[in-house]
Amino acid sequence: MWFCGAAVLGTACTRHPAPKEETEILQLQTDKACYHPGDSVTFGIDKSVSLSGLHVRYRHLNEVVDEDSLHADSWTWMPPAVDYKGYLAEVFRRDTKGKEETLGTIAVDVSSDWSKFPRYGFLSHYAGVSQEHMEQIIGRLNRLHINGVQYQDWHWKHHRPAAGTSSCPAETWTDIALRPVEKRVVDAYIAETHRRGMLSIFYNLCFGALKDAETDGVSPDWFLYKDKACTERDAHRLPSQWKSDIYLLDPGNAGWQRYLAQENEKVYSLFAFDGFQIDQLGSRGIVYNAQGQEVDLPQAYESFIRAMRTARPDKRLVMNAVSGFGQDAIARAGTDFFYNEVWADQPQFADLAEILKENAALDSTRATVFAAYMNYNVADSTGIFNTPGVLLTDAVMFALGASHLEAGEHLLCKEYFPNNNLRTTAELDKALIAYYDFLVAYENLLRDGGQWQEIKVDCTDGSLKFASWPPRAGCVSVLCRQIGNKQVLHLLNTSQADKLEWRDASGTMPEPDLHTDVPISIEVARPIERVWMASPDFHFGIPYSLEFRQKKGQVTLTLPNLKYWDIVVLEY
After folding, report:
1. Taking Cα atoms as reference points, which of 404, 409, 437 lies closest to residue 540?
2. Is the C or the N end of the chain the one with fewer CB within 10 Å?
3. CA torsion through residues 509, 515, 521, 524, sign
4. DSSP state of 162
5. What is the CA radius of gyration of the chain?
6. Mapping DSSP to helix (H, G, I), strand (E, B) and coil, where does residue 352 land?
């Protein structure tokens, strides 16, 4: 049978059954990155525009939930008071003959807690920054709907993160690389993130101490050693011109836990941080405590997390699993979400899916954020990010149900977050807004449960090859998730990828060709009521219905456009 929906309240369709690539006319803003149920959303348009015939339409997935005419360049909307829902607001002009033209879109996340759909950003520079510049940086993160910000390299010493005392805090200090840090900048950033509805999370290792730690009260009985005889302390070596190497302590040692909890209490008394981003260094091989006993680091991490929660149960905790190390113990201890720093030992797109599968086996309700550094091999000198590599990786991560820690004052390219050698182009900046809008607008299809399934997709004229996950060279990769009465197909265009690797380490990922009017067939087992699709690459991410024919367990349709990533939704 054939089906095409109609453009009325409560249905999916736009007026554009085959949308064309357009130039966005209006830049839209919201006052916050996320909203609690019952909060109103304030929207704004960035420039003067004629309000004649201007309207706004609000969608949840493919359903129109509200529509209104606009009489000012700033307005408010009260979303449905339902928790953990994503929406897409579309501003359009309707002429006297009823013809509509989309001028811009922006997503809205209604979620009472960031841990359901975490979108993590970062900061790394805290000196010589004006208030105006800070507002611009947080405004950019707000436009990407970043709902939590990690403060990297903000602290004075790893074992004593806050400089000064609770009664007399230092106004300036230096970080581990001897860069200046100003308290006023850290405070102002925290205030600005809170104004935007974001959490501010301070970074530190769970087991780091500098060379002067013992003079600050760190016991020699708390250190880790590389040998049973305790002759060599385990250490993370740093450049000689930096403040110190980092010497490692037993994170499971109760004395060290009490010490750092007290130092964190000083942090919380001086700064309005919302929680602690706990870091580690991956596998250290066999290590020993001061009594010559072998230390089970993952078990020690679990103990450490529980101790930090006991010390401040009101604060948020996230812990890094470097290359997955200790993830099972971290899961047992309970953190806000899984945080996987991925490295060259897990370079494939398929590895990302395996990480998510392993995380789901530990806790299927907990979200995942990937800390993953793009164009890594070219980031030691100045240059630009390779847009196709960044977008294809984000497409894969978002389609798999994760998000990507990448956005801050700059885009991340190294584990040393202050590294800003690579810059983004205007094209990439614009595309990232579209991708993060898509991540939020369709979060209930991307990150809200469901069951992965195998599904067979073919191109009926042979112009493209499709292959079920894991990706294969020369093919469009197909992922399928069943969510309620919907089958969500992710079509990820890896057909021209030079490697099936997320890192695009040398920045060589080619831009995929644009494919239009692609005839495809999909094997299905039940009658389909409707089919619709959306893409961050076209027509502002707006969903639109597709005509289809179903016969003998097969649905055939024409895919209007495919660049990096489309979703096709079959509703039963």
Report:
1. 437
2. N
3. positive
4. S
5. 25
6. helix
Helix pair angle (387-400, 349-362), 10° resolution: 30
Burial of residue 51 (number of CB atoms within 10 Å: 0-12, 13-18, 19+): middle
Joined tokens for residue 239: 């450049």
* Model confidence pLDDT, tens digit, residues 68-111: 999 999 999 999 999 999 999 999 999 888 899 999 999 999 99
CA-to-CA distance for 68 and 91, rounded, in angstroms?
10
Q: What is the DSSP string of 384-420?
A: E--HHHHHHHHHHHHHHT-EEE-BSSSB--SSSTT--
b or e along 166-192 (b: 16 or more beta carbons within 10 Å of the residue's beta carbon)? eeebeeebebbeebebbbebbebbbeb
429 confidence band (pLDDT: 50, 70, 90):
very high
Neighbouring CB atoms inside 10 A of 281's CB total 17
Got the DSSP string for 478-526? EEEEEETTEEEEEEE--TT-SSSBSS-TTS-PPPPPPEEEEEEEEE-SS
Provide mean pLDDT across the span 413-424.
Answer: 98
Tell me how far apart the alpha carbons of residues 380 and 397 are, in angstroms, rounded to a whole number. Answer: 25
pTM reported for the whole predicted model: 0.95
Sequence-separated (6 or more) residues with CB below 8 Å from residue 445: 61, 481, 483, 486, 488, 567, 569
Q: What are the structure tokens assigned to 507, written together?
A: 């920045």
Q: Mean pLDDT across the stretch 40-45?
A: 97
Percent of the chain predicted with pLDDT > 70: 96
Q: What do you get for the CA distance between the two ends of the chain, in Å?
A: 14
Q: What is the pLDDT of residues 200-220, one digit of tens each?
A: 999 999 999 999 999 999 999
* Interstrand relation of 316-322 and 565-571 (parallel, antiparallel or unpaired): unpaired
Summarised one tens digit per residue, pLDDT across range 536-554 is 999 999 999 999 999 989 9
Q: What is the mean pLDDT of residues 327-347?
A: 98
HSE at residue 218, side-chain half, CA atoms within 13 A, is 28
Based on DSSP, count helices (H) and strands (E) in the chain, helices before strands.
9, 33
Residue carrying structure tokens 């880790």: 224
Q: Structure tokens of 487? A: 């089958």
Average pLDDT, the chain: 95
